[in-house]
Sequence to fold (1004 residues):
Amino acid sequence: MARGKGPPITEAWRGITFTRRALVVGGAQAAVGIALAARMAYISVIDNDRYVLESESNRVNLTLVPPRRGWIVDRHGKALANNRVSLRIDIIPDRLHNREVVLGQLRTLLQLDGDTMERINRDLKAASGFQPVAVAEDMSEAEYASILVRLPEMPGIAPQRGFARNYPTGAAVGHLIGYVGAPNAEEYQKAKDPLYITPGYRIGKDGLEKYFQPMLKGKPGARRVEVTARGRVVRDLETQPDVQGRTVHLTIDADLQEYAARRMGRESGAIVVIDCLNGDILSFVSMPSFDPNSFSDGISNNEYSWLRADDHQPLINKATRGLYPPGSTLKPMAAIAAVEHGVDPSERHTCIGGYRLGNRFFRCLGTHGSIDMPTAIMKSCNSYFYWLAHRLGYDAMAPTAKLLGLGEEFQLAGSNQRYGTIPDSAWKQSRYDQKWTASDSLNAVIGQGYVSVNPLQLAVMSARIASGRRLYPRLINRAFKNEPLPFSPEALAVARQGMDLVVNGAGTAVRSRLPLDGITMGGKTGTAQVRGLASGSRGQSGAWKYRDHGLFVCFAPVENPRYAASVVIEHGMGGSRAAAPIAKDIFTFLYDREKAMEALETFEAGWGGTIKERMDRDYAAWKAGASSDPNPELPQ
Amino acid sequence: MIVVPPAIQRIPWKLIALLTAITGFGILVLYSAAGGNWSPWAWQQSLRFAVFLTVALIIGRLPLRIFEEFSYLAYIGVLILLFAVELLGFVGGGSQRWLNLGFMNLQPSELMKVTIVVALARFYAQLPPGNTRSWTALWPALLMIGVPVAMVMLQPDLGTALSICIGGVVVMFVAGLPFWWFGGTAIAGAAALPVLFSFLHDYQQKRVLIFLDPESDPLGAGYHISQSKIAIGSGGIGGKGFLNGSQSHLDYLPEGHTDFVFATMAEEWGLIGGLALIFGFFLLLRWGTRVALRARTRFGQLTATGLTMTIFFYIAVNLMMVMGLAPVVGIPLPLFSYGGSSMLTIMTCVGIILAIENDSKTGTRRLH
Fold:
C-alpha cells in the first residue's frame, strides 16, 4: 500500500479495512493458539520421558546408608575393630548458607571446644560441595534431640543415627590396625563413588584398615524418601538394608597384643611375637601409639600436633619402620654361620678384654678368659666373635643372616617396611665404592657398624633359629612352605644352647628367667650404641636420645620352641635391663595369665595408670603447656 | 412450545456457561494445589468469580453510549491514579503498584489496560475517515499510549506495560492506519531491541537472559521455567491424576497457584486438560471477535477488537511463559490464576464486549 495513493478513504472503505484487519488479528491469535497447543504437545508427549525422570528425581531423594564395616578379629574371634552405634551431626557445606550463625548455634548447643571448632572450620575449607563435615559424633540422646528440634533453623545440618568404628583396645592396636577416616576430596575424585560423600562413611586410611578396605567396606543400603523442595521428608518410599563388610581374621592374639602394649609402659619401642609352628604373628606392638579411635572420629589439630611433638614418635610404627643396630642379638646367628663354615663349637678362644686387629684394639665388655662358643653367646663375649669374624670374614656370615630373615622385606598385609641392611663386601663396594675391611667384619659381627634391622626381622630370626624352619611371618591365614633351613642340626643346637644359657645359665639375662615350672626361655640380649664408641660415653646415662638401645630376642620353651619374640626398647640402655624383663612377662602371660597380670598391675601403678589414662593426662598437660608455650612444636 | 420470557432470553447463558467452565476448572486446580483444600484459594476464587460475573453482566446491560461518553474522563482519571501511585511509591520509598482502598488493593495499571482501549476507540471513532492516513491520526494515539506506558514502566512492570501497548496498537491497526507504519515500527523496534534491553532493570535483564538459556541457572532464576516445564512435561497425555501432582504438592513449582497455575493443571490433567482449556479460551476469543465484526458502531468494533486482544495477550504471554517460550514477566492466566486484579480486568473486558453485543442487537448499524 503506497503512501498517499490508493482508494479514496470513505466510511465504506474503513468498514472493509476493519473487517479485514480484525480477521487478520483473529487469525494471528488462532495461529499463536495452535502454536501453543503444539508446543504443549511436544513437551508432554515427545519430551515426556525426560520430564517424568526429572520430576521423579525432584520428588525422590535417594539417601545412601553407609554400610557397617566388617570386623577385624583376632585368632579367637575377639574383636580388634568393630562398630558401635553413633549419633552424629554433620554439616553439608553446599547447604550451609549462614555459616557463622549455624556454627555459633552448634557451639552453644553442643558446648564444642575451640579445638573442635578449629577442626570443623579447617574441614569446611577443605571440603568440596556436598562432602559432609563431621561436627560431633557419639552424642548423647539429649544433645541429639536438642539439635533435631532446631533443625529447621539450621540449614546444612544433617543429623544421623549411624555406626562408628570402634577399637576396644585403643592405642594397643594403633599401628597394627591403622585407622579409618572420612574420604577426602581427592579420594572421592578417584573413586567417583557417591558413597564417599555420604555422612558417616569411613574408609581405611592406614594399616590393615586400608589394606583390607575392599573386604571390609560392605555394600551400602539405600533409603528412598519423598521430599519437598525445601528438603522436608514427606514419607519413606522403600528402604534397602546395607550389607555388612566381611570379617577379617587375623593371627593376632588380642589379649597378648594388649598385654604387650601395656607392658611396654612409658618406654618407646616395639614387640613382635611369632608362633614357631606356623609363623603366625601373635602380637605386633609399637609404642607409644596413637588412639585409632581419635583418628576415626576426625582428630583435632591440637591432638595431632601433640602426637607429632612427642620425641617418642607415636606416629611411627617401630615394629617395621624402626631400624636399629641389632647389637649382640646377632651373635647366635654368627655362631650358626661359623659352625656351618667348619668351626668347631668346642674350640676355645681366650678373651683378654678385647681383640687386637693390626694396630687397633677392639674392646670387649669384660675379660672372659678361655671360652667355647655356647659360653661366648652366654657371656656375649665380643672378643670371641671378633676372632670368628676375623677368621671367616663377614661375607661368610651375611648369607646366614639373610636366610634367617634379616634384611628381608616380608609380604605382610598392610605393612610398610624399612628393611635395613645386612652388609657384605659387594654391598659396600656398590654403596660406598670401598673395599670391605677386616674391621668392618668385626663391627658387623657384634651388630654395629653398617648393620641395621627392624624388630619384625629380629622376631623372625628368633623364630627361625628356634624352629629350624624358614618361617614366613603372617597376619592372616596364608599358606607358606616354611621349609627347613639348610643348616646342620648341630649349628642350630649350638645357637639354642647358647641362648638357653643366656637366661638359664650364667648369662646376661638370668634375672629374666620365667617364673614358671618346667618352661624355660632362651634368649639373647643386645645393647646397641646410638653414639659411636669414640665419644667415650657408654650411653648408660645422659640425655634420653643418646642412650643405648636395649634389645632382646627370645623363644620358649627351650626344649620344644613354641613362641619366639623380639623386644626393642629405644634408648633403654641395655638389653638385659630394659628388654629382657618385658619378654619375660610376655612369655609368662602366654602360660600363666594371672601371674603376668599381677606383675603388670604393679608396674602400671608405678607408671600412673593404663595406657589410656596416661595418654589422656599427658595430652591435657601438653595442652596446658602448649597454650602458654610460644613454640609448641618443640618437645617439652 | 415453551415460551421463554424475554428477560431470561436476554441473559447470555452460553457465555456464562463458558466462563463458569473455565473458572470452575481453575477452581478445581486451585483446590488441588492447596493439597485438596477449599482454603486458602479455591473458596475465595469462587466467591470472587460470582461477584465479578455479576458485575460483568451488569456492565453488559449498560447502554454502549455511556462508555463512549465517559471514555476520556475514565482515561484521565486512571492516569491520575497511576500518577498517585507513583507519587505514593516515591514518598514511601520503593516501588508501589497499588492503592489500598480498604476493601481491596486497586492496581490502576490494570484499569489502564481497559481504558486505553476504550479511549483510543473513541478517538478513532470520531476521527474523520479522510484523516486516517494523516499525522493527526497518529500523534494523539501515541501520546495516549506513551504516557501510561512510561508510568507503568517506572513501577517497573514490564508485563502490564506491554499489555497496554498491545491493546492500544491493535486498536490503531484495525482503525485502518497505514499498514507500513506498523511494519516499519516493528522493524525499527527489532533493531532498537538491544538499546531497549539496556533500559531494563537488572532483574528484568536477568529474566530475559535466563529465558534465552534456562538451564544456565537451574536452581536460581531459571528455576521457575525449568520446574514449570518439568511439571507440564511429566504430566504426559493424561496427566498424573487429580490431586497427584508432585511438582506442585511438594513445592517444586513456584507460584503454582498464580502465574504458573497452568503447569499445576497440566501436571495433573495432562495434554488433554491443556487442550481443553486452550479450546475454552478459543471459544471466548471467538465470541469477542464475532462481537467486534457484528458491532453496530465503529466505537463498538474498535473496542471489542482491542479488549479481545487484551484478553488474548494475557493468555498467550502466560502460556508462552509457562512453556518456556517467553521470559518470566508475571502475567497471570485469565480466570484461571488465583487473584482479584486480573479477574477484575478480564471481567470488565467481558462486560464491555457484552454491552457491545447487546448494543448491536438493538438498532441499525450506524458506522459513521
About this structure: DSSP finds 14 helices and two strands in chain B. Chain B touches chain A through 55 residues (CB under 8 Å). Residues 261-294 of chain B form the longest helix (34 residues). The mean pLDDT of chain B is 87.
